[in-house]
Each structure stands twice: as C-alpha cells, then as structure tokens.
Amino acid sequence: MHQNLKTVLKKKGDSKLSTISALSKESLVLFDIATCHCSDFTKCNCPRESKVPVLERQFLLDQRNEQKMVIGGLDTAATSRLMKKTDRAQKRDVYYRSLSENKALASSSKMEEECGSEMELSVQESDDSCHLSSDTDSNASNKCSQRNMMKIPRVAHECDRYGVSNAAGAAIATAALTDYGIIDENDSTAVIDHSKLRHQRQQLRTTLMKDAKSTMLASGPVSLFFDGRKERHVACLRLIQRVSLPRNMLL
Asked: pLDDT tens for residues 155-181?
C-alpha cells in the first residue's frame, strides 16, 4: 500500500485525488486488527472467544467509520469488575484442583486399605491354620504359600510404557519367569495373574500422578514443544519412550 501511494502521488489531476481517497478507505480495512469483522454484532457468528465485548462495540464501530471517539483514562468500574471476574476464575480453578487431588488421595488410600486387608486376611488365615489338624495344617500352608504377594511395579511400568494389555503383560511376565526356572510344575507361586497386574498398574499410575502434581506445584508446569513436520506424532512417541512417565500419563 505504501508503494501504491508513492505511485499515486506522482500523478496529477482529479484521478490523483480519487485514488488517494480509495487508498485511505483501504487503509482502514488494513489496520483493522480486530478478530471479529462483523458489521452487525447482533448477527455475529464468530466463536465466543473472538466476539467483541458489549462495552467496546460502540468504540470499534466508531473507529471503523467516523473516528470521533478517543481512548480516555482508566475506567475504574470496568477494571474492578474484570479484577473480580479474574479472582473468581482463580478461586474456581483452585477449588477444582483441590477436588481432583483429594479424589486421587482417596483412591490411593482406598487401594492401600485393600492391600492391607488382603495382607491381614492372609496372616489371619495362616494363624487359623496353625490350630487345625496336621492334614488341615499342611493344606492351609500350601494355600498360603501359593499366593503371590510379590510387588511388580517395574512390570506394570513397562506395560504402561509400551501399551501392553493386562492379559498380554501377565502372560509375557509369567513366560519369562518360566524360562528362568522360577516357575515349574512343582512351584507355581510366582505366576502373575492379569488381575494382579491390573491392580499394580492402577497403584503405579496413582503414585506417579501424585508425584507429578507435587512436582508441578513446586516447580511449575513443563511444556513439550514440537515442530510443524508431518511426522510429529512419530517424534512424540519417541520422546515419550525416553521419559520415565507412562505414555497415557503424558497424553
């Protein structure tokens, strides 16, 4: 537009004035940086975040036409309303964040209570088995010894990392223990069930979520940035495989 104006200024006569007038009208459109370009705000179909506030519509229409209005001093009443609105939004965010944290803590405590009840039940069964006859005592001891109480957080971590299902992860882990000779026909206490792996994955996710929230509150959020290449989803998966958190926790 600047180059066109320099070219027009070299002309003479009435065409010069008409061209300058046309360029001045085009400049109004060029410097209109408002997201909403609707002339009738009552029929505006722009997204909610792009709509012009009611208090600023009259000023915007004036700037697009006659330009008689100017920006004045600080509007104390409007500023006070905006500050109160921002405070309410911050309090609402803090409230919902506290609700999610309490829910996560409640679920983790519930899982710990369930694990503790299972341990108490196994101890009680072992104590009751001591008061039975010799045949009953041997059978009860065998049942207690056949329960797999070993924690498998690393197996749960790798299953979450590579997106393996509970059934497939339990079968792979059991097959590995069988190949190492830990599981055989006489001793099958180390067999990993899919339900056991599911509980371990839920417990691990709760722990990692709690640690991530505490870290974010202490040091702030950490952002992952990617370029605009088409294979960005492949780069995202490769980056997720390098970090310690499970893929579903990051996504």
From this structure: 888 888 898 899 998 899 888 888 888
